[in-house]
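Quick one: structure for this chain?
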Amino acid sequence: MPNAPVEEIGGRKLKPSTLMMGHGYDPALSEGSLKPPIFLTSTFAFENAAAGKRHFEGITGKRPGGSDGLVYSRFNGPNQEIFEDRLSIWDEAEDALVFSSGMSAIATVLLANVSQGDVVVHSGPLYAATETLINKILGRFGVTFLDFPAGETPTKVAEMLEQAKTQAKENGGKVAIIYLESPANPTNVLVDIEGIAGARDQVFGDEGTAPPIAIDNTFLGPLWQQPLKHGADIVIYSLTKYVGGHSDLVAGGVLGSKAYMDQVRAIRNTIGTICDPNTAWMLLRSLETLELRMTRAGENAAKVCAFLRDHPKVEGLGYLGFISDPSQKDIFDRHCTGAGSTFSLFIKGGEAEGFAFLDALKIAKLAVSLGGTETLASLPAAMTHLSVPDERRAALGITDNLIRISIGVEDADDLIADFEQALEAV
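Got it. Here's what it folds into:
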């Protein structure tokens, strides 16, 4: 018989950093192996025919609640399920799902909620591929969208939701989902999750048609922001970033109530966007040091930004530790427990000066992505957000002199020395 999970001792609820070492896995079920084996199998043997039928009733939705056992690796697997159990602890989510990439997670959430004629309301800017998915790909199937700046007031968002209701009615659909990204990529502007939830409830009330609020929490979560506590219904991660955290895998995660996750799981089962067992195993490994890595990176970012703040060749910093705008500071104080380690550096000049800085770096790597153990730097306007139309980039503040930096776990003074010599080359 498997051992009962240990989640408290003497009435003391164990912390996430403790539970990361073993929650959801019993060595007795795997020949005593301290760590979970990698289950490289495409399918699983049923105990008997009746069990097979019961599992497929759950998988196909004939019986609510999903499968109560292992069926086929497009649906579930031991490595994926252990990881999902542990991931959900950080956000205190009822359920979690793992995906083959952050974008496959986002796409699956949207497909689970959006139908022809529907309206998506979203904050801006979003990660460029997310904007492309909402604006161009879903648009091919009769889905429209309305967007608002990330720092917009709840009052203005409520007005937009009223407009979205009218637009959806004209199109024969509904307001399907409110999709947020906070902090916004790459400007680091915060969205008032609590305020958006209040605006949603004000506009939709008890109509029974209120759209769920989904949020991409990649930049700060799960350590520095936990949106489910502030009114979000669905939290999305590119697990490639801090959770994976070593720049050696690509994966995505979605968390929320079981009711929402069952809808998303049904689409994942159909289109096969689950991650593979080896990636799930690597994610399990990384969860053990998540708090240590994010804490060190956050401390490093504070030291580096303190140096950059007053440098004569720096025009400004989009760093959450130095917020001057009162409304943004209010959101930060209510929603965040740390400033993170990814920020925007505005070089005096334009693309040429930005390129000169990037090309002069010796420790920091010139690469896209973030949240790894190493420091990364890129110029979004010329790289990750190149596909965004020029006028929209300008409106969103994604300028040619904006450099996105993700601080790693190196020595902070070494990083400062690297940025100092790179700025001298500008």
